[in-house]
Amino acid sequence: MAGFRSLARQVRDPGCDLALRRYSLRKCLEKFAPYGHRATWDHLCARAGFGPEDRSPDPARLVAALEELEEARSVWLRYESEFTERRRREKHDGLRRPGSVDDWHRLTWGGFGVAWCDDPRVHPSDPLAEVLRRLIDALEREPGASCPVCGADRLVWKYGLDHEPSSGPVCGDCGILVPRPVLSPQALAYARRGRLLMPA
């Protein structure tokens, strides 16, 4: 099975058939898809300016979509490398029990579904790399009361998500499943009750 970099080379290769180049970009999403496969594809198509069902998009647009995906992947791989090093130091120092961020991170290793969007048509519109930077920043600070990606406080607890965990706080504005470790206990409680967090 081809790896991400090998598939990326095929997307860029002008000697490859256009259908193969498009297919290779779709296959890249099996390796790295922050919103999930379908929502990440919808996002890349919208940002690069071709339709999700377009079978012969402009090759330059395919490459633009790939470049956005590659930048986001490099942001996430850097975070994973730093995370691994931190856990190594913690274990060396005797901290064997992982925290809630570690539990969340275990479910998203490799970057699939990091900012899961259950509805593939509802996802952040900002560049993927920027969305991931905001999410990483939120994971590295104290829990807050709003979506780390768009800042909205319209969080609703949803069940039956096509993801693990299968329930959790979903942002009513940008559509991501907000990682529980970035939200305060009060924000989580309000989301469970389906109420907006009241300002302090």
Topology:
Elements: H1 4-12, H2 18-28, H3 37-48, H4 59-92, H5 100-107, H6 128-139, E1 155-158, E2 168-171, H7 185-193
Antiparallel strand pairs: 1-2
Helix pairs in contact: 1-2, 2-4, 3-4, 4-6
Summarize the biggest pleated sheet. 2 strands, antiparallel
Q: Any idea what the shape is?
A: globular
Helix content: 40-55%
Q: Return the string of H and E elements.
A: HHHHHHEEH
Q: Number of domains in the coordinates? A: 1
Which value, in Å, is the CA radius of gyration? 18 Å
Strand portion:
under 5%
Structural class: mainly alpha
Overview of the structural elements:
The protein is mainly α and 200 residues long. The protein contains seven helices and two strands, in the order H-H-H-H-H-H-E-E-H. The protein has helices at residues 4-12, 18-28, 37-48, 59-92, 100-107, 128-139, 185-193, and strands at residues 155-158, 168-171. It has a two-stranded antiparallel ribbon with strand order 1-2. The longest helix is centred in the middle third of the chain and has 34 residues, at 59-92.
